[in-house]
Write a structure and sequence with these properties.
Shape: flat
Oligomer: single chain
Strand content: under 5%
Largest sheet: none
Order of helices and strands: HH
Number of helices: 2
Distance between the termini: 54 Å
Length: 96
Amino acid sequence: MPTAATRTRRRALLLALAGAFGLLLANAPLALADTFTPESGGSPNAGDIDTLYKVVLYIGIAIFLLVEGLLITAIVRFRYRRGGPSPALVHGNTPL
């Protein structure tokens, strides 16, 4: 069983780590400029490629969020509940 001094040191260490992490996150926008998309400019084709990349990226993000939302909804809605009916078995159901 940890002593009170050990718990205090752990809390201080966790607080210091959280503070350092917070400082890193505060400076992240400067270091992460154009991280997820290519840099703009350079040539006329580079601008078109950058626009196309961003359009595909945003459409992909929307599809991902839709699929994940449906997945989480299905997991929560059809989960097993204690005292409830047993879930239907679908083993061998080829059309499904």
